[in-house]
Amino acid sequence: MAKSNKFGFAPLETEPPQRRERSVGPMGAAVREAAESLTDATEAKVEKRRQNAVDAEAFRTAQDEGRVLMSLELSQIATDDLPRDRMDLEAVAASDEMEELKASIRERGQKEPIEVYPGPDGSFQLKKGWRRFTALSQLLAETGDARFGTIIARIERGDDGRLARYIDMVEENVVREDLTFAEMAQVVITAAQDDAVGEPDPDALVARLYGSLHKMKKSYIRSFVFLLSQLGDVLPFPKAVSRNLGVDVSRAFKTQGAAQALREKLATCQTPEEQNKALVAFVDAAKTTPQTPKKKLEPREKFEFHVGSLKVTARRGECRIVSKDDFAAIPKSQLERAIKAFEEELRGGPSVRPL
């Protein structure tokens, strides 16, 4: 027993507290499970909302960049804002190739989307895919089947600019080599006359519209641009003019002048054969017409010019090149090649040495 104090009583003796074990009842377990489930569901919903926001942003970006395909009613699309890159659209619409395309769409559906852009009146304007649009329009008119009344399209959302739309329009057919030189030249002429393009010079537009083509092909297009500029209103069958004939006629015009007789002859042609025969005759006549001799330039006693860091002095029988380079340190074979190339360029081609 504990010792008492001066007041005669001792502190109470207590047993150490015992920990009470409490078990979760059925109701508590149910509440706990509901709380855990609610926490998991909330986290899942938060993650889902986050992913939805990411997906929505990606979709809007793709839509703005024109990478989203949509199904549009044919009636929502107009074709009158951007000139087509084909001549004689009615003939193309009634061609065997159009019937083949319609048969393919009838059997397998539309496989390649068209491209459209928002027009000023709220409708969509066709940019690429005139043949597919025409084929579906014809199928809808012929069959009345509603499945031909819609078309898969890629929508341009940004303002690409008028010139960019011309380029997009011709790009597909140029890659497939589906356009004639006359048609490519006509696109250039039309674009040059379009104030919204902002480039009135057809020669400059050739490089911008057909920048991916080889320089020789662009030269052919320029020849046809000149040809159509001279004869476009009287040339009845421009697509029938071959590449070489078009280039020859363009060259003949530059040496012959306007040639009113040719214009009058073309105005009476009823077939492509008659047209091309008249053009060939014009070229042949230009070849036999004596050319005015060029005025001979009076030779100068001496003149100097610079090519890069080289100073060149030219006079009769002498061409002097002054440079900081040590020509004596350059291998003889390299100098010989350089001098040979120089001589060939002066002679207008590879030099021919006697055997």
Automatic annotation (TrEMBL):
Residues 74-142 form the ParB-like N-terminal domain. One of its GO terms (biological process) is chromosome segregation. Transmembrane segments: none annotated. Residues 1-28 are annotated as: Disordered. It comes from the Bacteria. This is Plasmid partitioning protein ParB. GO terms for cellular component: chromosome. Pfam families: ParB_N. InterPro entries: Chromosome_partition/occlusion, ParB/Sulfiredoxin_sf, ParB_N, RepB_N.
